[in-house]
Specification:
Elements lengths: L7 E4 L6 H7 L4 E3 H9 L3 H7 L2 H14 L6 E3 L10 H8 L1 E6 L2 H8 L6 H5 L2 H15 L4 E4 L4 H12 L1
Parallel strand pairs: 1-3, 1-4, 2-3, 4-5
Helix pairs in contact: 1-9, 2-4, 3-4
């Protein structure tokens, strides 16, 4: 079992259940995307539309560094580890947990969710290519957790790692 003061960053591709599982764990949890929305007063989609993806990534990196992981679960967006050396930063601050999912399951879950900027702009082939590129960095996480389909079961199993 881990130290009670140990923090955890939950990472993974969009639709893997990061926010949902983090909320079900027996720890204080923060959803970085929701924090961004609260701090800016804009939804993620509005930030992408009104400003840019680059501006969103900059805000995300700033907020990531302002939230102390001490004893908490922090769910980050699927792209967060790939910008501003965020993965290296997270690994220095706490443990990283990759929620690994099968691409076909992920795609079926997110394909119609137009609130996700990348779903709106990428077709299945492009989404698969993005998933494949991101997988290598996700796999450097401290803990690789194979996600079951049931979020409650996932949280129950994951709680054993983050107690």
């Amino acid at each position: 079992m881990e130290d009670k003061h140990q923090g955890y960053y939950i990472i993974g591709f969009m639709g893997s259940g990061k926010s949902s599982v983090a909320a079900l764990l027996d720890r204080d949890a923060i959803d970085l995307d929701r924090e961004i929305e609260q701090k800016t007063g804009y939804t993620i989609m509005q930030i992408f539309d009104r400003f840019s993806a680059s501006y969103f990534r900059w805000i995300e990196a700033q907020l990531l560094r302002s939230v102390c992981p001490n004893g908490r679960i922090i769910a980050v967006g699927g792209g967060c580890p790939f910008y501003y050396h965020n993965m290296e930063y997270m690994r220095r601050q706490a443990k990283t947990v990759y929620l690994r999912c099968n691409f076909d399951s992920l795609y079926d879950r997110i394909k119609d969710d137009k609130s996700r900027p990348l779903v709106r702009s990428l077709d299945r082939v492009s989404m698969q290519a993005l998933f494949d590129r991101r997988e290598a960095l996700y796999m450097t996480a401290d803990i690789i957790f194979d996600m079951p389909d049931d979020l409650a079961i996932a949280a129950q199993k994951l709680n054993k790692f983050v107690k």
